[in-house]
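Researcher: Go.
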Amino acid sequence: MTCRPIRNSPTSALRRALLFLVVAGVLLVGCAAGGLTGNPYHLQQRVQPVAETAPVFSMFDSADDPAIWISEDEPARSLIIGTDKRSGIYVYALDGSQRQYLPLGNTNNVDLRSAPWGDDSLSVVAASGRFPSELLLLSLDHASGRLQFEKRYSVRLEEPYGICLYRDPMGRPFVFMNSTDGQFAQYSVTPRFEISLVRRFTFDSQVEGCVVDDEAGFLYVAEEHRGIWRMRIAPGADRRRELVDSVRGGHLVADIEGLALYHGPRKLLIASSQGDNSYAVYDADSFEHLLSFHVSGNERVDGTSDTDGLEVTAAALPGFPDGMLVVQDGDNTDPAANQNFKIVSWTDVAALIGR
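Model: Structure:
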C-alpha cells in the first residue's frame, strides 16, 4: 500500500478547523461542569432522594431555605420548616406532608435553636424578611409541634438574605443576619423575644448562606461569588477569616448558597454549589474536600437543581438511621409543580464518603 502525504486542501483545513471548535467546546463544557477542579470525578457521585415535601403555594422562584427540628422524646414527631420567600413559612412532617402554614410575607431564610434560655419546652425560630427589611421571631412548642409567630423587627440591612442562629454556653440565643451588599448584623434575643444589636461586620460582596458551630464557636459564611469563610462568633472576637474553599480553583461553582453542619462521628460542612447543581462536603476541622455529589431522580421523586438553602441533621430518625439532608429544589418536575424541598438519607451520602 502506498501512503501519500495529506495535502493542505481548503476542504481538509476547514475540517480541521471544525474539529478544533468541537473539541474546544467539549473541553469548555467539561470545565464548567467540573467547576475547574481538575478532578474528573467531581460530578460523578450521585444519591437519590427518598421523599419530598408538598410544594409551596407561590409560583416561580419561591421555596428557599429549610430548617430541621428534632423531637428528642419522639423522633418521629420531628419537623422540617421551610420558607416560601413570596408568602410565608411551612412546617412539614418527616414524610414531607404539610402540617402548618403561616402567611408571614417574604421570608427568605430560616433557622432555629432548641431549649433557649434553658427552656426545654420550646425552640426559638428566626426568619429573614426581604421586603420590607425585617427579622421575624417565632417559637416552636415542643409538646404540640406547632409554630407560633412572636415578633417582627425592622432592621438596618439592605434586602436581608441569610440567617443563622447559635446558642451560647449560658443558653442565650443569638441571630446572624446578612444582606445582598455583604453586611452582617448580630443580635441577642431575650426570653420576651426582644432583640439587641451586638455587632456589625462586612464582606466584600453578596453573602447569604451561613451556619454556626455552637460548640467550637465558629461562623461559616458563603460569599456567593468568592468562597466559604470561617470566623469566630463571640461579639468581642476579632474579624479575621479563614478561607475554607473558593470558586477559583476550588470545588465550587458560583453561586455558593446554603451551608449546613453535620455533627456525627466526624464534623462535616455541606455547601450548595448552585452553579453546577452539586453539593460539596468538607471535613469541618481540616477543610479537606471529601466529595461533591448530585441528587438525581428516581421513579418516585425527581432530582434537584439550582439549590438555594439546605439543612442536615445527624440525629437518628425513623427511616434515617444516620440522619437526613434536606435541600431546596429549584425545578420541581415529574410531575411539574411549584418548588419544594427534597429529603435525602444521610446513609447514602456516607456511603459515598466511605470513611
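Model: The first strand starts at residue 45 and ends at 47.
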